[in-house]
Amino acid sequence: MKRLGIVALLLAAYVAVPLLLGRNAYVMSLIDAALVIGGVAMAWALLGNLGGMVSFGHSAFVGVGGYVSAIATLHGGLPVFAGLLLGGCGAVLAAVAMLPVLRLRGPYFALAILAYAHIFRILATEWTGVTGGAGGIAAIPPLPVVAGIDFGGKTGAYFVILTIVCLFAWLYARVRASHHGLALRAMHDSEDATRVLGVNSTLLKAAMLLLSSFMAGVVGAFNAHYIGFLEPDYAFAGLWVTLPIVAAIFGGYRTILGPLAGAVVVYLLDQLVFKALIPSGHQLILGALLVAMIVFSPRGLLPLLAARGKRDA
């Protein structure tokens, strides 16, 4: 039954959504943006759920991934899809520079990662010969046309980002189901006990940080080619921290698809419903909705729906 549900969900995502909404460029652009946020939220949740680390600095990986891919494709002539992977690799290198902070725990780790994000933003601003400085990079190559399909359009880009997040969800599930995932979850109860059993907790945490950074970097690279422009204040903006965290918590950050579902629900409700009701203060409704979810279902939206489904059955 679970596999049938996944197949039905994929068919709806790949077939029903483009057929029903593909002609509405505005709605498709909102869905694309929601999936971008969902991809970063999934990367953030992987680090928190498996790595046990709360990050306030995923904007560093999004920004570095976007800049690496933009520069490599614009000035190096690299194909765009290869640039997406290179953007993820660039984010991994940024995460390697952050490895020393793995010795920190709790809020100290979160604040240290946030400091790194500010450092990378400053580097992007000051390194004018490569990044264009505060003026940013314009005319970033768009997603290409392949076999007659324009992936640079709203619907074509939707297929690209949807495929990216689906692959990341599959990878997340494989890691969580592995013996490494079991060890990581055991570390949440007692890291010292798992070390006694021979588990290298520092190495596993580092692996989760690198994997999470790669995911966020690829999504950041996609976003750079999707919008065609990049500048430091946007690439490393705080919204790449706050929105993914809100989405992950709302949808259920301890589930695989919860962060993605949370991003779609939260962002589309905010843009299509709350913004129409209160144009200048629609974030207030969104904040109230998040508080209500935390109070009545701390585990998030998907666990709440699953529990209700079992009661109805």
- What is the percentage of strand-forming residues? under 5%
In what order do the strands lie side by side in the largest sheet? 1-2
Overall number of domains? 1
Ranges with pLDDT <50 over ≥5 residues? none
State the share of residues found in helices, binned by percent.
over 70%
Protein structure class = mainly alpha
GO molecular function: branched-chain amino acid transmembrane transporter activity
Membrane topology: Multi-pass membrane protein
Organism: Pseudoduganella buxea
Subcellular location: Cell membrane
SSE arrangement:
Elements: H1 2-21, H2 25-49, H3 58-74, H4 80-98, H5 107-126, H6 128-131, E1 145-146, E2 149-150, H7 154-177, H8 179-189, H9 191-196, H10 201-227, H11 232-235, H12 239-251, H13 258-277, H14 282-296, H15 301-312
Antiparallel strand pairs: 1-2
Please describe what this structure looks like:
Keywords: Cell membrane, Membrane, Transmembrane, Transmembrane helix. It is found in: Cell membrane. GO terms for molecular function: branched-chain amino acid transmembrane transporter activity. It comes from Pseudoduganella buxea. It is a multi-pass membrane protein. The chain has 313 residues and is an all-alpha fold. The protein has one domain. It is 76% helix and 1% strand. It has 15 helices and two strands. It has a two-stranded antiparallel ribbon with strand order 1-2. β1 and β2 form a beta hairpin. α2 crosses α12 and α3 crosses α4. The longest helix has 27 residues. It is globular and about 50 Å long. The mean pLDDT is 88.
